[in-house]
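Researcher: I'm preparing a figure for a lab meeting and need a structural model of a single chain. I don't have an experimental structure, so a prediction will have to do for now. The sequence is pasted below. Please return the structure as tokens so I can convert it later.
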Amino acid sequence: MKKIAILTSRESWFKKYIPGMVSLIDNNFFVIDVYEEHEEIRGEYFCLFILSYFKIIPTSFLELNKYNLVVHESYLPRGRGWAPLFYQILDQVNEVPMVLFEAKENLDSGDIFFKKNLILNGTELNEEIREKQAQATIELCLTFLKNYPTLVPEKQKGTPTYYKKRTKKDSELDINKTIKEQFNLLRIVNNDEYPAYFYFKDKKFIIKILSTDEIEGIAHE
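Model: Understood. Here is the structure written out token by token.
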């Protein structure tokens, strides 16, 4: 059986989806290990899925594995860097390309194995966006495992563009704009980690947003 590993940061949003991903991988063909730090990994793997991992991994480590695969929410080389899904939502994009590509030393520069589109309806909030993102991520990984013997990756084509890292400051609302104008920003904020906020008369106010579906879900828990 071939050995594969899943690497995601301890504080990653994707962590809670890993058990579901593992359950969908055929354990008759693959032995699966899960890690939260690349320094913990010992030995070589047929495939290492690097999913929402926040550290830089040295090339010397990547060379130990046959495949080192990353999922990214833009059609590379456009949109390299941080939070590509959220930046596109801010740009009112509801059909977001996602690619599975080979991890390389240079940021988001590796060859592409698969592409699929993540379809949004424009009303999802952070939790639902992450749910759909996770399912699409898992589908890309499973597709690779089912088809790897016949795969021919493609080189990235075009001029790279880059997104900068988002911070909590990016959740600030403009009190002079309407809710409609800022709804996409409200969609991507996280009520606990980076909530929406605004300043009025030198005082900071925090806004938390929930859909009625989320409220009903909480009520039934």
